[in-house]
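During the reporting period the student researcher (J.K.) took over the structure-prediction task from the postdoctoral fellow and processed the backlog of single-chain submissions. One of the processed entries is reproduced below for the supervisory committee.
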Amino acid sequence: MKKILILDDEPHLRELYRKELQAHGYLVATASHLHEAEKTIRAQKVDLVILDLKLDNEFGFDFFHSVLSRKKDIKVIIHTAYPMFKSDFRSWGADAFLVKSSNVTELLQTVGRLLTQAQEPIPAP
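J.K. obtained the following structure tokens:
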């Protein structure tokens, strides 16, 4: 079963996404700040991170680049209320970029697509 980490400082959205993802068969961990997310990544195998960029007194880009430098197999969805970050070069390494919404359809589709791609073998040349 695939494990997802949601890093978001908004409790109601964190809970909404957790419930929806669990209902679709994923194991879900949540974190509200960078230290908590780092602890989860060190302690558990995580397949995908849903990452908010603007956290209380913290910036998600720090975590994003820390994760990518150590765990290259983890998929990352930048999930923010600020669409302007899509043009920020620091977000270009993400596997997907989504603008936050209470409608979770696009998020669920993106998670499914990325985790399905992660399971497909790479064809030999």
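The committee noted the following: DSSP finds four helices and seven strands in the chain.
J.K. will present the remaining backlog at the next meeting.
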